[in-house]
């Protein structure tokens, strides 16, 4: 049986509420989704929380998945969860804006929840603007094609290509500089 | 993470840039993506994954109940919509139908004549015919009694013919 047939069978199982099928989906996508959240937030605790929210949301929303690329659908949900997180944090705690500003300006070193310094990549990602960072994360962690990414972002594919190229080039310069 | 749905990056970039630029873009992207592979993000904790699976198992019955409720709401909603449409349609059709079995008759006879006590006086045509018949009857009586002079037979025949003609015109309407 092919990989896509396997996935289709698992999703069908999820739709009828089979816990084992959901567990399989978690095993298949947890790592990539966690990487996506971690590279966007630079924080283990927040990434843990967002990953949990994503799979809980998956249980609620699986009925609305009507076919097509499952990865594309899943990362669209992940992207929405990340934006909800940003909005709720902004509403509740104004000081986060200060933290982000300081993080972006490089006045503080981003720290993981266990107190270790974030890796070099995470620091340099922090120098990119939020939209660019998310675009790169979608490109790398979702494994989606540019066509699918442009659909998720509701923008022409040429724009997505140009933005991604510019962003990755800039990131490479930061990393090499 | 090499597959990307069998996407041919060079071909894709060549749609928007010339061959040389497209080549450079693809190289830039591949080099930058190598950085990600060299700096992998941390993996989620095993405990976190176990917790997520437990959370899902806990939420599944509620999700199933929610799904059933949603189906019920959809069915009830659809039934209500059908009932509303049916009720509206009935109301629209009922406007054209007489209420409580009341029938409307259209009479061929004018109301003035239908309600008249003296039809011969109220119906102009009938009055004219009646007057002509009376006149002809008088003339016939006069002829029979010998009051009329001249060719009596032919006059009588003419009068009888005229009477028959008037009579048949009357019944033809």
Describe, in plain words, how this protein is organized in 3D.
The complex is a heterodimer of chains A (177) and B (173). Helices cover 75% and strands 0% of the residues of chain A. Chain A contains nine helices and no strands. The N and C termini of chain A lie far apart (47 Å). With 177 residues, chain A is an all-alpha fold. Chain A has a single domain (29-176), classed as Butyryl-CoA Dehydrogenase, subunit A, domain 3, CATH 1.20.140. In chain A, helix 2 packs antiparallel against helix 3, helix 2 (19-41) crosses helix 7 (130-141) and helix 7 packs across helix 9 (157-176). With 173 residues, chain B is mostly helical. Helices cover 72% and strands 0% of the residues of chain B. Chain B has helices at 9-14, 19-38, 46-94, 111-114, 119-122, 124-144, 152-172. In chain B, helix 6 (124-144) packs antiparallel against helix 7 (152-172). The longest helix of chain B is centred in the middle third of the chain and has 49 residues, at 46-94. The A-B interface holds A 17, 19, 22-23, 26-27, 30-31, 34-35, 38-39, 44, 47-48, 51-52, 55-56, 59-60, 63, 112, 119-121, 139-141, 143-148, 157-158, 161-162, 164-165, 168-169, 171-172, 175 and B 1, 3-5, 7, 12-13, 15-16, 25, 28-29, 31-33, 35-36, 39-45, 48-49, 51-53, 55-57, 59-60, 63-64, 66-67, 70.
């Amino acid at each position: 049986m092919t990989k896509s047939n396997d996935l289709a069978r698992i999703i069908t199982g999820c739709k009828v509420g089979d816990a084992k099928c959901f567990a399989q989906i978690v095993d298949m996508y947890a790592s990539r989704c966690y990487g996506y959240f971690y590279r966007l937030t630079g924080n283990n605790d927040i990434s843990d929380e967002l990953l949990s929210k994503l799979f809980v949301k998956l249980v609620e929303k699986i009925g609305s998945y009507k076919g097509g690329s499952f990865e594309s659908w899943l990362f669209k949900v992940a992207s929405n969860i990340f934006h909800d997180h940003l909005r709720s944090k902004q509403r509740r705690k104004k000081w986060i804006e200060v933290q982000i500003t300081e993080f972006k300006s490089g006045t503080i070193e981003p720290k993981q929840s266990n107190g270790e310094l974030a890796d070099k990549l995470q620091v340099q990602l922090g120098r990119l603007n939020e939209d660019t960072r998310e675009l790169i994360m979608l490109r790398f962690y979702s494994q989606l094609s540019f066509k699918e990414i442009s659909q998720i972002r509701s923008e022409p594919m040429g724009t997505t290509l140009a933005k991604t190229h510019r962003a990755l080039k800039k990131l490479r310069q930061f990393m090499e500089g | 993470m090499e597959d990307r749905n069998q996407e041919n990056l060079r071909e894709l970039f060549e749609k928007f840039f010339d061959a040389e630029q497209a080549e450079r873009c693809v190289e830039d992207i591949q080099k930058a993506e190598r950085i990600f592979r060299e700096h992998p993000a941390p993996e989620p904790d095993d405990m976190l994954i176990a917790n997520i699976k437990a959370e899902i198992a806990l939420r599944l019955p509620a999700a199933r109940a929610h799904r059933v409720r949603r189906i019920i709401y959809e069915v009830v909603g659809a039934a209500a919509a059908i009932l509303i449409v049916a009720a509206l349609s009935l109301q629209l059709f009922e406007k054209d139908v007489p209420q409580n079995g009341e029938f409307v008759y259209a009479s061929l006879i004018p109301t003035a004549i239908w309600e008249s006590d003296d039809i011969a006086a109220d119906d102009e045509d009938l009055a004219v015919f009646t007057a002509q018949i009376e006149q002809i009857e008088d003339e016939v009586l006069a002829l029979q009694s010998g009051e009329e002079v001249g060719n009596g037979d032919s006059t009588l025949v003419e009068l009888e013919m005229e009477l028959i003609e008037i009579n048949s015109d009357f019944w033809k309407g």
